């Protein structure tokens, strides 16, 4: 089994590859910018660090990559995981420094997190970016990628923009940060996490293992 991690210049690839290799139990982990490699992969991962527009432009600059993702994820139904900005790119558009077109796989848009200074989280005022550990909650039945991960488990976040899903039923997990903030979305064979599984220790490794075992 080959796990393809798309390299479009977004960074954070080394730690992501290590985490998938550790959870993958001997599966091949291929970090690639080649569209041809997507066709031979069984699982596809789209990471992302940085601004939405820059990441979207970097992905579109790879020859044939958007078409390969559409063919293998949408048409052929291969399991897909987007993380952080990789999840955000699943939206119709991102509103970070202008309006930028996303993949359009999940109805919704990516908007800035709005936290008022008067709101408090423990003894610390809420700030943007939302950075650090936060507790997951599940608004509906737990998705297969969260098998064995209980509500209240901590995951690691670094982001200033949030996924505002057009259909609340597609929100798989949330965190409380001055109100509910989307932590995971999904439909059909596609899931995305706003948090970084590769930085979320045992919770992240469990999620990756669940993803690799998932047969949508």
CATH architecture classification: 3-Layer(aba) Sandwich
Decide which structural class fits the backbone. alpha/beta
CATH topology: Rossmann fold
What's the CATH C level?
Alpha Beta
| Helix run count | 6
Give helix % range: 10-25%
Q: Strand order within the widest sheet?
A: 2-1-3-4-15-14-13
Task: Spell out the helices and strands N to C.
Answer: EHEHEHHEHEEEEEEEEEEEH
Radius of gyration: 16 Å
Distance between the termini: 16 Å
Described by the principal axes of the CA atoms, the overall outline is globular
Number of domains: 1
Q: Strand tally, please?
A: 15
Spans of 5+ residues with little confidence (pLDDT < 50)?
117-123
Key structural traits:
6 helices; four-stranded mixed sheet; Rossmann fold; seven-stranded mixed sheet; 216 residues
Description of the molecule:
The chain is of the alpha/beta class and 216 residues long. The chain has one domain (2-97, 109-213): Class I glutamine amidotransferase (GATase) domain (Rossmann fold, 3-Layer(aba) Sandwich). It is built from 6 helices and 15 strands. The protein has helices at residues 13-23, 35-39, 52-60, 65-75, 85-88, 201-213; strands at residues 2-6, 28-32, 43-46, 80-83, 93-94, 100-101, 108-112, 120-121, 124-125, 130-135, 154-159, 161-165, 171-176, 180-187, 190-193. It has a 7-stranded mixed beta sheet with strand order 2-1-3-4-15-14-13. A hairpin with a 3-residue loop joins strand 13 and strand 14 (180-187). Helix 1 crosses helix 6 (201-213). The radius of gyration is 16 Å and the shape is globular. Mean pLDDT is 92; it is low at 117-123.
């Amino acid at each position: 089994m080959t796990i393809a991690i798309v390299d479009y210049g977004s960074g954070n690839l080394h730690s992501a590859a290590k985490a998938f290799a550790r959870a993958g139990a001997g599966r091949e982990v291929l970090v690639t910018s080649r569209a041809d490699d997507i066709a031979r992969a069984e699982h596809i991962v789209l990471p992302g660090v940085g601004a939405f527009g820059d990441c979207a432009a970097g992905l579109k600059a790879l020859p044939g990559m958007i078409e390969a993702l559409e063919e293998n994820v949408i048409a052929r139904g291969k399991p897909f995981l987007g993380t952080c900005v990789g999840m955000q790119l699943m939206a119709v558009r991102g509103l970070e420094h202008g309006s930028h077109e996303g993949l359009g796989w999940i109805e919704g848009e990516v908007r800035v997190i709005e936290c008022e200074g008067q709101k408090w989280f423990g003894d610390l005022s809420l700030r943007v970016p939302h950075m650090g550990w936060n507790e997951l909650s599940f608004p509906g039945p737990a998705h297969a990628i969260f098998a064995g991960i209980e509500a209240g488990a901590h995951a690691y976040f670094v982001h200033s923009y949030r996924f505002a899903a057009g259909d609340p039923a597609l929100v798989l997990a949330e965190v409380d940060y001055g109100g509910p903030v989307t932590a995971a979305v999904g439909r059909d064979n596609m899931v995305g996490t706003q948090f970084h599984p590769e930085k979320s220790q045992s919770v992240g490794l469990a999620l990756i293992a669940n993803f690799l075992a998932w047969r949508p």
